[in-house]
Amino acid sequence: MPLSTKIPGITSLWQSASDVINHEPEEVKFENPKAVTLLPGVGIHPLVMLGNKIDKTDKSLGSPQARHQVGKNIQLIFSGLTVIADTSSRNQVNKIAVTSEQGPHSIKLVTPQGLKVGSKISEVSRILGPHTLRPSIPGLHFSSLGISFIPSPKNPQIVGAIQIYRPNQTP
Question: Which of 27, 75, 77, 92 has its CA 20 to 30 A from that of 86?
Fold first, then answer.
């Protein structure tokens, strides 16, 4: 049985993902915060897509609160999320870490299934199904989808962060 028939909404999710995978953000108006969606393996639609140049984030998210170079990675830190790019891949975004239910400009950061920072870990498992556990990285990892849910250090039963990355990569 294909994976898309086991996870509710995954067929429409992948259709949306294929429609936006090469989207280059233009100036975004924040009139409808519900239009912003965490798409596993794709990015934060329509603001930041995996594979986009990191400098495009200024156009869609505004100026970051901080910018760090850590090894070959550049990290741009915004309210509620961090965008990470690899300098060896022409500064393309390769990971997004979401640490709040709300991002810059009060945008709501939620998956098409309604999962967000603050959701119950048991709800993630119930909605998305089988996951992978990694001894070195706590949380529920759905590597084939390109998303991981990391428990909160204060309350491990609650999602404290969400990572979005390319499918079948290590979180």
Answer: 27
Q: Is 61 within a domain?
A: yes
Largest CA distance in the chain: 45
Q: pLDDT tens digits for 30-67?
A: 445 555 789 999 999 888 999 999 888 878 888 999 99
Q: Summarize pLDDT for 136-153 with one digit per residue, the tens.
A: 889 999 999 999 999 999
List Cβ neighbours of 96 (8 Å cut-off, separation of 6 or more): 43, 44, 48, 50, 81, 82, 83, 84, 163, 164, 165
The tally of domains found in the chain comes to 1
Residue 70 backbone dihedrals phi, psi, to 5 degrees:
-125, 105
For residue 107, being part of any structural domain is answered with yes
The domain in which residue 74 lies consists of 3-165
Model pTM? Answer: 0.79
Report whether the peptide linkage leading into residue 151 is cis, meaning its omega lies within 30 degrees of zero. no
